[in-house]
Amino acid sequence: MSSGASVSALQCLVKQLKVEAGVERIKVSQASAELQQYCMQNTCKDALLVCVPAGSNPFREPRSCALL
User: Fold this and answer.
1) For the chain, how many structural domains are there in total?
2) Per-block average pLDDT, block size 10, for the chain (68 residues)?
3) pTM (2 decimals)?
4) In which domain, by residue range, is 9 found?
5) Taking a C-beta distance cutoff of 8 angstroms, is the pair 19, 12 a contact?
6) Got the DSSP string for 2-57?
7) What integer pLDDT is reported at residue 46 of this predicted model?
8) What CATH code is carried by the domain that includes residue 8?
């Protein structure tokens, strides 16, 4: 690898590290509490916890066509 390519790669790495250093971070305990609160607020909308009405279920078995 040439020195020009090496310098360019290192500049990209420094740029990425600066972006990552600027990311705001929170404690795991705070994140888990917020996640738990979000889940509790949205349980009534969760299709895995509340049954989906049969008419609006996109995964229901297709009806067969019967000829008379």
Assistant:
1) 1
2) 82 96 95 94 82 71 70
3) 0.47
4) 3-50
5) no
6) -HHHHHHHHHHHHHHHHHHHTS----HHHHHHHHHHHHHHTGGG-TTTSPPPGGG-
7) 82
8) 4.10.260.10
